[in-house]
Amino acid sequence: MGTIYIDDKAVEFEPGQNVLDAARKAGIDTPYFCYHPALGAAGSCRICAMETVPQKEGEKPRTVMTCSIPAQDGQQFRFKSPKAKQIQKAVVEFYMTNHPNDCPVCDEGGDCHLQDTTISVGHAYRRYDGQKRTMPDQFLGPLVYQTMNRCVTCYRCVRFYQDYALGDDFGAMGSSNHVLFRRTEDGAFDSPFSGNLVSVCPTGVFTDKVYRRKYSRTWMLEKAPSICSGCSVGCNIEVGGREGTLRRVQPNNEESKVNPYFICDRGRYGSHGTESHSRPKYVSEQGKVVKTSPLDALKIALVRAEGHVGILGSVEEDLTTNLALKAIAKEMNAPFSPFISPQQEALTKTAVAANHNAPSISDIEQSDAVFVVGELTEHAPMLDLAVRQVIKAKKDVYVLHATPSHLVTALNKLQRGHVKALAPSQWQDCLTQINTAVHDGAVEDLWIKDVANALKQAEKPVIIGVAELLNTADISLLNTITESLAPAAKMAIALPSAGSVNAALTAQENSCAELMTQIESDKIKTLVVVGSDPLNTNNPHWHALHDKLDQLIVIDKVLTKTAHLSDTLLPLAAWPERDGMTINYEGRLQRFSKAFARKTATIDAHSMIETLMKSPETIEQWLTELAPTLPQAGDDGIIIEKDKLKCTELPLEQKTNPPAIQSTQPQVALSKWFGEGYVADHAPEIRSLKPGSSASINPKLAASLNLSNGDQLMIICGDQKLVRPAVISSQVADLTVALNQADMRLLQADIASPLCLERTSELFIDADKKEEIKNIIGSASVIMMGEA
Ligand code: SF4
Ligand code: SF4
Ligand code: FES
What we know:
Blueprint: E1 2-6, E2 9-13, H1 19-25, E3 49-52, E4 63-65, E5 76-78, H2 82-98, H3 113-121, E6 144-146, H4 156-164, E7 170-175, E8 178-183, H5 196-200, E9 206-208, H6 209-213, E10 222-227, E11 236-242, E12 245-251, H7 265-270, E13 284-285, E14 288-289, H8 294-305, E15 309-312, H9 319-331, E16 336-337, H10 342-354, H11 361-365, E17 369-373, H12 376-379, H13 381-392, E18 396-401, H14 406-414, E19 419-421, H15 427-438, H16 446-457, E20 461-466, H17 472-483, E21 490-494, H18 500-506, H19 511-520, E22 526-530, H20 540-548, E23 551-556, H21 561-564, E24 568-571, E25 580-583, E26 588-592, H22 605-612, H23 617-626, E27 638-639, H24 642-645, E28 667-670, H25 684-687, E29 695-697, H26 699-704, E30 712-717, E31 720-728, E32 736-739, H27 741-747, E33 756-760, E34 763-765, H28 770-777, E35 782-784
Parallel strand pairs: 1-5, 15-16, 15-22, 17-18, 17-20, 18-19, 20-21, 22-23, 23-24, 28-32, 29-31, 34-35
Antiparallel strand pairs: 1-2, 3-4, 3-5, 6-9, 7-8, 10-11, 11-12, 13-14, 13-24, 25-26, 26-27, 29-32, 30-31, 30-33
């Protein structure tokens, strides 16, 4: 801590801060364009000028760019000197010579840093009457819109995209006064973080194309601090709604302890899934809209149940909702579980219990060695962005994976040899060997030795695993390795869903098995499903249970398969439409606020508590036990104490062994796309970028099957078969076929399920498309999904 003086005002600074940053933090409205707190200074725009105050006789004041001057104790500057003011004003005038006069129709209007700066430095009249420079715009896909003429050449976009997010399909092109910022070719960005260009650009060159389509001036939005429900990172977002619909999602707070400055595209654009045309908006009974309030319909349906009720909550929902459902179930003497399978319950509870010392995004960024197990980008994108900062700092990052991943692509460019692709059934052996090497045991594999050495030598090593791809034994091994490293070592398990911790903490022991057993034994004839999709699992068990029910009541914010099959369908409020609390992978309890109300009535935890509960104080009691002081919306939240995050009923020692598989047999690996999610799957813009179903396969395995890219591959798992076009990729492990979740469901396959493969000319299609396709392709053999 030190002190500098600006216009004789004392300004305190932290070590490492520059003068501009210290001034901003002290509330001095210093102009800047090229500087960004997360990206640093480029020193190119020349607007952050101040004058130095001479310290010795004969010394003259100097003009300095404050973003490039490290703050040092006792320095003195003049921000308001005539010279400094003249430079600031001249710089803005220079940028405005070419800037179009399109503020009234610019989507950035009201949020524009250039607009604010123009006013603040006092540039009011245009003197230049020459021709303006014009530049071509580029089509950048469905998420980001470009208006190149508004550029002030601050290079923030390139510094974010290339230097911070390590992307390489976008850059500066041209020279002198004609620099264009564009992709190498038209089309969508190849980065899960592209929407941040909208946030970093200080003017309206990059604007949010989804918000643009649902246009509203920023000051007309109803805004509130909220939490992203896209994954277990729980990023802080600001949501803006208008006229009962979601219009915009952006990062909330540059000081956030979770995600300062940035969010991923799944969070920014996927949240719009709740605006899908198919969203349940009204009460419907047996598929027909009924004119009644959702809560009345729920009460009537519960009366019909005559006490034989079970409640299925959700791993996608917040703590408040799951607590409310648990309390309601308790009063009704009904079983409650937020999990759709005992396996999901065991894995989630194990992963949550292991996460008691999880690193924050900032801890990850400052680590000096990171070991990632699984395709992190596709499961917890902002943790990936944190790992990229470690790569950028030239510290060791190692990744063990089975399928293509954005992080692997980025790492391959800068730290060759640091990734290892292994079939999922081999991961446990690999982790066991790393554990051996960390404990100085002998191992032969050089990569494993390197990983162990890097972790052992690091002062702040971080291990990150992806729960959805691991079994409980793998998590236990990662925990053991972490405990053997430096005292500052930390481990994070990216959890399968945004509400994984909420679910783990609200579920009783074996809650899912108990719920299923009671349906099986006819004790439950009415099931209430809230924010969950058990009938989408292709799990025959849930379909059999469904047949045993008299009544299926679904309350949801998106139209799922289960919602389709419901007897009563009721609209649920999405997170931006209600207050709530949620716990992220770190165990951080955060509160979110309602930004806007929909025009049609919805159900939320609070209205269910008011309508259905006799003694709602149970929930208050549970919350007080969890955290004596509860967080406020928009603050840093509260880290729940370690002991309270331990889900006692499933100790880490409980191991699930991977399925036995012959060493030469191909197997399944899960291939996820970074933009998918429970809500995001319904957001049209981001969903339009989702790759089609394919079978990604390693070149060696492809060669053994005589397969070329695009050839049809028949994949046989047990008595199920499927045909998908082959995509040959060196990022797929040998003896592995990477499939998306939907195809794994069709095959009724798990990760590492053994497969038989053959090249085919047959085409498997959905039943309803069979005749149509036959007419088109005539001679090809057409087999329906599931036909053996
Ligand atoms: S496009 Fe925006 S961020 Fe990029 S250089 Fe121009 S003004 Fe700066
Ligand atoms: S990392 Fe997860 S929580 Fe954060 S913005 Fe992306 S989807 Fe949302
Ligand atoms: S902000 Fe200092 S030179 Fe651009």
